[in-house]
TrEMBL record:
Pathway: Pyrimidine metabolism; UMP biosynthesis via de novo pathway; (S)-dihydroorotate from bicarbonate: step 3/3. InterPro entries: DHOdimr, Dihydroorotase_CS, Metal_Hydrolase. This is Dihydroorotase. Keywords: Hydrolase, Metal-binding, Pyrimidine biosynthesis, Zinc. Its EC number is 3.5.2.3. PROSITE patterns: DIHYDROOROTASE_1, DIHYDROOROTASE_2. Homodimer. The modification N6-carboxylysine is found at residue 95. Binds 2 Zn(2+) ions per subunit. Zn(2+) 2 binds at residues 95, 134, 168. The keyword Zinc applies. Its cofactor is Zn(2+). It comes from Helicobacter gastrofelis. It is an enzyme of class 3 (hydrolase).
Length: 335
């Protein structure tokens, strides 16, 4: 049987939620991945170091061999002292949510380039934080990432010593920004590499493929896929796996988020093999991120996959959480 081995896989954009949902989804990430950047958009956003550290400790208690890198929810109340204390206690990521851009972002930043915000970002730069950005405007849904470019230009120029991550890059026009700014990088999701808007809305509507940023055109998809397949030095893997219960997915309105955690390694292996690029998967899923985020002390994990379709459940939590099987899976993780 053909096998393939990965060392220390990393997911640089992950939503783990709270309570029973956290307990149900965590093993899919914590078992095969060494570490993940865990997003702070909980129902009470992780807007203080104390909240972020408590959440980090809670995850570590549930999964001792997995390193959760919890991002602090950027907000105007963060003082120099609190950022310093956060850094001393091991937090090093800030997540910028433009107000109302996505799930639980009502307390996001309303004026990103306000004097107060610029002052906070200046301190963050001096302290060596990394800024993760949900890079979308609140304009027309397919143009949101593009419309956000002026903000990225300003941030990347003004804070040229600050590492900035354009999260879940979805628009091919963003690639030029990566080329332009040495301090700008991007995460790429599995669903934006394998799907386009047709999967969501081309036939019957697929609520489980509705996410922010929205899936885009085939040209966008192909351009992002090219970056991933060659493990371009400015990109790394960040799944944006974002579970929502059926109660918020299957109603008149549908929460944004694709719950991809259960299929990530199988899916990436299948995708990279299909394009004869398996040799670059290690860089895409680990090495690039170690360099970009300057990661040390990762729990060592060696994950072997074999070339046989996995046996994934269709749902969890008594059917309340659907696992969308959105792509063919030809590899499975060996237990
Ligand atoms: C995420 C969520 O549900 O928390 N949703 C999504 O569609 N990606 C938030 C986010 O990353 O935008
Ligand atoms: Zn996200």
């Amino acid at each position: 049987m053909q096998t393939f081995t990965l060392h220390n896989p990393l997911d640089m954009h992950l939503h783990l939620r709270e309570g029973d949902l956290l307990k149900a989804v965590l093993p899919f990430s914590a078992t095969p991945f060494s570490a993940a950047v865990v997003m702070p958009n909980l129902s009470t956003p992780l807007s203080t170091p104390a909240l972020a550290l408590a959440y980090q400790a809670q995850i570590t208690a549930l999964a001792p061999h997995f390193k959760p890198l919890v991002a602090l929810y950027l907000n105007e109340e963060l003082s120099k002292e609190s950022l310093q204390s956060a850094k001393e206690q091991g937090l090093f990521l800030l997540k910028l949510y433009p107000k109302n851009a996505t799930t639980n972002s009502a307390q996001g930043v309303s004026d990103i380039l306000s004097p107060k915000m610029l002052e906070i970002l200046d301190i963050a730069q001096d302290l060596g934080f990394i800024l993760c950005v949900h890079a979308e405007s609140v304009g027309f849904v397919l143009e949101r990432e593009f419309e956000f470019h002026p903000v990225i230009h300003t941030l990347a120029k003004t804070f040229n010593k600050l590492t900035i991550i354009l999260e879940h890059m979805s628009d091919r026009r963003s690639v030029a920004l990566l080329e332009q700014y040495p301090n700008l990088y991007a995460t790429l999701t599995l669903h934006h590499l394998t799907l386009n808007l047709d999967a969501l809305a081309g036939g019957m509507l697929s609520p489980h493929l509705f996410c922010k940023p929205l899936l885009k055109t085939p040209k966008d998809q192909v351009t992002l896929l090219e970056l991933a397949l060659k493990a371009h030095k400015k990109v790394c893997f960040g799944s944006d796996s974002a579970p929502h219960l059926l109660a918020t997915k299957h109603t008149c309105t549908c929460a944004a988020g694709v719950f991809s955690a259960p299929l990530l390694l199988s899916g990436l292996c299948t995708l990279f093999e299909k394009h004869n690029a398996l040799e670059h998967l290690q860089d895409f899923i680990s090495t690039n991120a170690v360099r970009i985020y300057r990661l040390t002390d990762l729990p060592a994990k060696t994950i072997t996959l074999q070339r046989t379709p996995p046996n994934l459940p269709n749902a969890l939590l008594d059917g309340q959480l659907i696992i969308p099987h959105f792509m063919p899976l030809e590899w499975s993780v060996l237990k």
